[in-house]
Every structure is written in C-alpha cells, then in structure tokens.
Amino acid sequence: MRVFVLLFNAGTDNEGIHTIRLVGSDGREHNIVMMFESAEDAERYAMLLEAQDFHVPTVEELLAEEIEEFCATANYEAKLIPVGFVPQSEEERIFLSPPATNTEKTDWSEDDDDRAASAPEEDETMVSSELDDIRRRLEGLF
Questions:
Q1: More confident residue, 107 or 73
Q2: Which residue from 72, 76, 124, 131 could staple onto 31, CB 3.0 to 4.6 Å apart?
Q3: How far is residue 94 CA from its own chain's centroid?
Q4: Which pLDDT does position 52 carry in this prediction?
Q5: Integer Cα distance of 123 and 93 in angstroms
Q6: Model pTM greater than 0.70?
Q7: Vertex 36, ends 33 and 38: CA angle to 5°?
Q8: In 3D, which of 12, 45, 7 has the Cα closest to residue 111?
C-alpha cells in the first residue's frame, strides 16, 4: 500500500521524517510517524506546519511497509491516517492539526540549524550592500 509522509531535506544526506512526540498513559514518550492515505491530507498538514513557522516538509509517497520497517528499527510508531479520519479522542486531534508548539532542536538538521542561524546576517549584509549599490546608481542618474 502506498502512503504519504512528511520529509525534511528530502533526498539529501540530512533527510528527516516528521514525527509527533506524545506522552502515553504510561508516562513514556512515543514518537509517531503519520502515514497519510491521501496526498491532499498530507499536504494540508504540511501547510499547517509551515503556518506555524516550522520547517517546511515535502510530501513523499512511499510504501507503508518501508515506513513500518523504519519505525520498527527506530523505535517509532507508525499511524495510518485514513481518508476522512475522525479523531476518537482528544489525543488523536493532533493527527488533524499540529500541536501549538514544536520541537526547538531537530535530530535531522543539527548542522543545518547552525548554518541557518548565521545565514540571516549574511543575507542582511548582502541585501544592504545591494541596496547601497542601487542607491549609488540612482544618485548617479540625477
């Protein structure tokens, strides 16, 4: 069976899969990988993550068996989100809409986060120098 999952940095050495961390009734944390039956549902969830200023995932179609095998080796749980999914509990509402808070530090982008943290300064400097150049050109026209 084909399912749709949310991946970060898809196709790179630093690829990661979106998981939801829930604390079970036993007090232990569980990492859950959502497998969507519908591409539209997966894309909607990805857009909700983006709206929360989280890293933007890509929707990838994979075999459910591959995801389940990955989950078994990584000690994660796979959760199939069928078309027309209706939550049966308060806890299951998280499969329709992401939680209000996100993990601060991701396992899959540790090095990328360091580069991204310094990138805005470089971008601001570049933008500032470009603006100065444009300003000089415009002043030269007068």
A1: 73
A2: 76
A3: 15
A4: 87
A5: 39
A6: no
A7: 165
A8: 12
b/e sequence 100-123, b meaning 16+ C-beta within 10 Å: eeeeeebebbeebeeeeeeeeeee
The one-letter code for the residue type at 36 is F
Q: Amino acid letter at 84?
A: G
Q: Rounded to an integer, what distance in angstroms lies between the CA atom of residue 30 and that of residue 79?
A: 12
Beta strand 16-17 with 20-23: parallel, antiparallel or unpaired?
A: unpaired
> Taking Cα atoms as reference points, which of 83, 97, 71, 81 lies closest to residue 17?
71
Query: Would you call 42 exposed, middle or buried from its count of C-beta atoms within 10 A (0-12, 13-18, 19+)?
Result: buried
Q: Which residue has the tokens 């995801």?
A: 67
DSSP characters over 18-33? --EEEE-TTS-EEEEE
User: What type of residue sits at position 69?
Assistant: E
Q: Give the pLDDT mean for 41-54.
A: 91
Cα angle, residue 106 at apex, residues 33 and 44 outer, rounded to 5°: 50
Task: Pull the structure tokens for residue 137.
Answer: 């050109």
